[in-house]
Amino acid sequence: MSKIGNVIHEIHQMDTLAARDQWVNRIHPLVKFVLTVGYIMTVVSFSKYNVIGLAGMVVYPVALFLLSELSFWDSLRRLRLVLPLVCFVGILNPFFDRNVVLIGGIRMSAGVLSMLTLIMKGVFSVLASYLLIATTSVEKLCYAFRLLHIPKAMVTQFMLTYRYITVLLGEVNRITQAYSLRAPNQKGVHFKVWGSLAGQLLLRSMDRADDVYESMLLRGYQGDYRYMQERIAMRWQDVVYLAVWAGLFALFRLCPVMLVIGGLFI
Amino acid sequence: MSHIHIDVEKISFAYESGRTILTDVSFHAAENDSIGLIGANGVGKSTLLKLLVGLNLNYEGSIRVMDIPVEKQTLSQVRSRIGYVFQDSDSQLFMTTAYEDIAFAPRNYGLPEDEVKKRVEQALHLTGIEYLRDKQIYKMSGGEKKLVSIATILSMTPDIILMDEPSIALDPRNRRNLIRILNSFEHLKIIASHDLDMILDTCKRTILMSDGKIIRDGATKEILSDRKLLEDNGLELPLCMQGIADKQVKEKPAYIGRRGTGTEE
User: Fold this and answer.
1) Residue B91 Cα, gap to closest chain A Cα (Å)
2) A24 and A63 part of one domain
3) Tens-digit pLDDT profile for residues B17-65
4) Do B55 and A218 touch (CB under 8 A)?
5) Could you tell me if residue A217 is inside a domain?
6) For chain B, what are the domain ranges?
7) Which of A41, A237, B170, B235 could lock onto B175 through a cystine, CB 3.0 to 4.6 A?
8) Are B105 and A219 within 8 A, CB to CB?
9) Residue A123 sits in the same domain as residue A236
10) DSSP class of A52
11) Could you tell me if A87 and A175 lie in one domain?
């Protein structure tokens, strides 16, 4: 399969994961969205030297991986392009922040600590976002957005953009395959034809997008996905799930839980 | 006059570039009519179908679907009565699974979820694709996608079905299945196709188009057995008739001798 084919496959795989009938997938989308945002905000709010406190926040992605029965290694593979970038963000901190801080009586480089917290914050946030979209379909996410009164036009645009990404990638795939079959000795696309291929891609994807839109119009679409108006009831399990995690986030943020746990063993 | 009908009167259509596609096209289609729309590539078959559902509105003349004029203000009324199957299933199907795509129209028409489910199950049953219910669209074969496309319009319970090249890319078994489905649909249907054998199996009436005009409108058997008429308009006899006709018509059609020389028009 070509690289673009792989990307399309990965997008469809995410749809497949979100459509599974797992317990976490059935949690109300608004609850999952609010928790994810809350989690990221909590993670980001830790001070830049509080590595131990931040480490406790790993409990959320770990629990979600277990509950949703998602493969951790598959997820890492999917995030292989994003995670190195996230890790790279704090790499210069040890050079700029040369202070020394004491942690449990041990002197440590403040720059290294701030680098670690930055990396952890980035990785945790990316994992939480990934877990949200791997357990919630884009339609349900849009439903949650509408419950939060995000304007309909924005939500619909988000939804259609997501749908059109695969349409666009499909066209790119077809064009590059047709090119490579008639230019077998070339690696990639020669720069001389970039212009005409880009033009073709634009025209063809516009045509295809037009067709898809016409198909929607002919089946009663009038600017609003009715799917989002279908009410998804909030169950008591959803409320308990929200309350438990919100409580845990507050606990990990406000109390030195990891130090207490460590103290039990040392 | 029957309740379900389409009236097309003297319509002409040209793109903004000035290219004329349809000229002075008129016909009446009544309830239970099954009409095959045939003609060579580019004669305006797909354009005509698109005009009937209001996908292009800048035409001259009059189109009325069940007495409703096809214009901007009436589009939702017209479209709720007509099911349109696209030539390319990939353009028609845009949701994740077959179920979601088939449920798209009933949900848009505001039906309660119980009714949506009932309609989806009925459409799946009618097309014989219950096994595709939860299958993802991108994992389907061309034939499966075509059947799901048909199911997406059956769930609208339309009074009229329009199909653009429905048998394209179907293997013989799926094609037979499609013919069975089309024949089981009792209301008005108009099928634009090059597959003249399928038209012969599914349509009692045929409209032959050439150069944006209707050349002949009549009984399918009569039109599809007229070799000269078909060949003059860029078509050939249906495969099932070619053997019979060869015995009846001794002379070789003019174009056969030129075939392969690259000189035919």
Assistant:
1) 5
2) yes
3) 678 899 999 999 998 899 999 999 989 999 999 999 998 888 999 999 9
4) yes
5) yes
6) 5-224, 225-265
7) B170
8) yes
9) yes
10) H
11) no
Q: Do A92 and A192 sit in the same domain of this protein?
A: no
- In order, the DSSP letters of chain B are --SSEEEEEEEEEE-TTS-EEEEEEEEEEETT-EEEEE-STTSSHHHHHHHHTTS----EEEEEETTEE-SGGGHHHHHHHEEEE-SSHHHH--SSBHHHHHHHHHHHTT--HHHHHHHHHHHHHHHT-GGGTT-BGGGS-HHHHHHHHHHHHHTT--SEEEEESTTTT--HHHHHHHHHHHHH--SEEEEE-S-HHHHHHH-SEEEEEETTEEEEEEEHHHHHT-HHHHHHTT----HHHHHHHHHH--SPPTTGGGTTTT---
- How is domain B5-224 classified at the architecture level of CATH? 3-Layer(aba) Sandwich (3.40)
**pLDDT tens for residues A209-222?**
888 888 888 888 87
Scanning every residue of chain A, which has its alpha carbon at the shortest distance from the alpha carbon of B96? A15
Query: Is residue A207, in this structure, part of any structural domain at all?
Result: yes
Cβ-defined contact of A216 to B79 (cutoff 8 Å): no
Q: Is B82 on the interface with A (CB under 8 A)?
A: yes
Sign of CA dihedral A239, A241, A244, A248: negative
Nearest Cα of chain B lies from the Cα of A218 at a distance, in angstroms, of: 6
More confident: A192 or A249: A249
CB contact (8 A) between residue A230 and residue B86? no
Residue A125, in any domain of the structure = yes
Number of structural domains found in chain A? 2
A145 is a domain residue: no
List the domain range (segments joined by +) for residue A40.
20-136+231-261
ipTM associated with this complex: 0.72
Q: Which of the four pLDDT bands, split at 50, 70 and 90, describes residue A228?
A: low
